[in-house]
Amino acid sequence: MTTSLIILASVIVLLALSVRIIQQQRVAVVERLGKFQRIMHPGLNLFIPIVDRVRVYHDLRIQQTNVPPQSVITRDNVQVLIDTIVFYQVVGPEQATYGIFDYVLGVRNITTATMRQIIGNLELDETLSGRERISAEIRTALDEATEKWGVRIERVEVIDIKPPLDIQEAMDKQMKAERNRRATILEAEAAKQDMILRAEGDKTSKILRAEGERASAELQALGQARAIADVAEAEKTRIKLLLEAGLDDRVLTYKSFEALEKIAMGPANKVFLPTAAVETLGNIGAISDMLKSNRDKGDSGLLSRKPAQNGDKVA
């Protein structure tokens, strides 16, 4: 009974040891009797205890490793401190296991050596402004080395570049001076634009004012011309109507005389006549004789033959 229990327990233990469950995005490198046998992928895997063993597990997700800050010297003999980070992914578990002892350490060392080589060919200003170039060259060097390790470099980032303290102070002063210079230039440009815009505005205002005055004068002249034309047309119509009614100069003179006689018979003892009317009446012989007769009779209110000025009174 005891032997049977021992055998049963041993079988259960062997069955438990013969099963491996691998998580997602992980793989296991299996060796049989010290020799590579296969790769166990995520899920349930059978395993021969004692004969087979898992050499190493690999995480297939993208991982990152920080390269410790490195002190490097630029071409113009300035010592700077550079901090970088590398993103990588294991794509060949067998090569990552047997191609290199520690691929993470290898990535760091290659990054450091490549970075020193690159910075040594750059001056300080080029180093500070050439992060993308530095990252690209480090990644190229890493790709060439890590391809046979089963590791793919996803990204290399230069996090920080620190020059010496005295260089930083000089750079700060230079930066402040440059900003002050730009500010002065911008203020001058703004003043120039302000003057130009004001001059253009004044010019446009004067032009518009002159155009308005000219348009106003043209409209007034046009109105006066139309008024004169209307008056002339009305006078023409009046004369035409008088001619059509048969009112020639003799009839008009006679009518004027009748009206003048009625005025003279009124209560007023003085009559004011225009000079032109008196001359017209004086030129008519019959009317002149009549005026003489009336003056001899001493009738008050008759007209004098003396031409009166405009507004002069006739006794």
UniProtKB/TrEMBL annotation:
It comes from the Bacteria. The lineage of its organism: Bacteria, Pseudomonadati, Bacteroidota, Cytophagia, Cytophagales. Transmembrane segments: none annotated. Residues 295-315 are annotated as: Disordered. Residues 17-175 form the Band domain. It is a single-pass membrane protein. GO terms for cellular component: plasma membrane; side of membrane. It is found in: Membrane. Belongs to the band 7/mec-2 family. This is Peptidase. SUPFAM superfamilies: Band 7/SPFH domain (SSF117892).
